[in-house]
């Protein structure tokens, strides 16, 4: 089961060895099935199976042994999150002492955990949800990453960089996985469609609380706020980056970037299986 499209450096680009993964996370064994093609896999419409699989993937890093978060929080797919980290590493070239700002880190704190495990980077990670930050801090502490990861709370949900950046901050790059939807209702409708596509109407195969899934105005509004706020403090980071799920939002962002003094704007395509997305990157 090769994962087509993953970064060449991604440790999961040749697929999953379930024998190895069960050793990393023995709970996974109860969710393993044989599909109609006689391949070993899991039921990807079962949220608990997906969570235990991704735990096993994360535990292939020798310095990560704990990863706990409430079921209502999104379970990030580890291979795709790792791809973002690898692409950032390429973007930054041979830079030393890399420090990343992770916007909206969530309870899983996944980008900082992977970034420390893979490259020994340092992170400042932000979120508006204090409960999410408490859980993230537990994951940081339990894996002894306290020297590498600092958490900060964003108190105003309409802002992204404003009130987070401090006078002495300077980052190699910022990164973000923005909310997709404009409202809770839109997010719920998308979840129902996804469940139907998986052939399982009764089970939600992905979770997510409000601030993880939606932002007033949706992804486009979030990205434009992020771009505008980056233009107010352009020297705080060498690169500003974000995942963008909707291709049409890239052109809109690019047009606005020219008006705000961006000197370089680039798009990095990413693919995991049939899912195609991209990273947008800009600097001043």
Structure description:
It is a single chain. The longest helix is centred in the first third of the chain and has 15 residues, at 78-92. Helix 4 (110-119) links the parallel strand 3 and strand 4. This protein is of the alpha/beta class and 284 residues long. The protein has helices at residues 18-24, 47-58, 78-92, 110-119, 130-142, 184-197, 210-213, 218-232, 248-259, and strands at residues 32-34, 40-42, 99-103, 122-127, 149-153, 171-176, 237-244, 264-272, 275-283. The N and C termini lie far apart (41 Å). The strands form 2 sheets. It has a 7-stranded mixed sheet, with helices on both faces. Strands 1-2 form a two-stranded antiparallel sheet. Mean pLDDT is 88; it is low at 189-198 and 200-209.
- Give the strand line-up of the largest sheet: 5-4-3-6-7-9-8
| Main structural class | alpha/beta
Alpha plus pi helix count: 9
Q: Rg to the nearest angstrom?
A: 18 Å
User: Which residue ranges are poorly predicted, with pLDDT under 50 across at least 5 consecutive positions?
Assistant: 189-198, 200-209
Helix content: 25-40%
E-strand count: 9
- Mean pLDDT, to the nearest integer, reads 88
Largest sheet: 7 strands, mixed
Query: What's the end-to-end separation, in Å?
Result: 41 Å
Note the overall shape: globular
User: Secondary-structure element order, as H and E?
Assistant: HEEHHEHEHEEHHHEHEE
> Which percent range describes the beta-strand content?
15-25%
Oligomer: single chain
């Amino acid at each position: 089961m090769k994962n087509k499209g993953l970064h060449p450096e991604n440790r999961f680009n040749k697929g999953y060895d379930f024998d190895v993964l069960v050793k990393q996370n023995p709970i996974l064994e109860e969710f393993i099935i044989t599909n109609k093609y006689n391949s070993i896999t899991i039921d990807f419409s079962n949220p608990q199976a997906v969570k235990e699989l991704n735990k096993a993937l994360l535990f292939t890093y020798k310095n990560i042994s704990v990863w706990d978060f409430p079921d209502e929080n999104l379970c990030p797919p580890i291979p795709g999150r790792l791809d973002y980290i690898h692409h950032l590493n390429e973007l930054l070239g041979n830079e030393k002492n890399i420090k990343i700002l992770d916007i909206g880190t969530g309870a899983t704190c996944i980008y900082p955990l992977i970034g420390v495990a893979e490259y020994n980077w340092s992170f400042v990670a932000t979120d508006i949800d204090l409960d999410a930050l408490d859980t993230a801090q537990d994951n940081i502490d339990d894996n002894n990453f306290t020297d590498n990861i600092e958490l900060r709370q964003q108190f105003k949900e309409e802002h992204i960089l404003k009130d987070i950046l401090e006078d002495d901050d300077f980052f190699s790059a910022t990164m973000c996985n923005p909310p997709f939807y404009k409202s809770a209702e839109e997010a719920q409708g998308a979840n129902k469609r996804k469940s139907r596509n998986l052939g399982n109407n009764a089970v939600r195969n992905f979770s997510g609380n409000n601030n993880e899934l939606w932002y007033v105005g949706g992804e486009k509004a979030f990205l434009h706020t992020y771009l505008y706020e980056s233009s107010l403090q352009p020297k705080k980071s060498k690169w500003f980056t974000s995942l963008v799920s909707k291709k049409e939002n890239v052109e809109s962002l690019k047009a606005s970037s020219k008006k705000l003094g961006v000197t370089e704007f680039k798009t990095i395509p990413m693919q995991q299986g049939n899912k195609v997305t991209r990273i947008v990157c800009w600097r001043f």
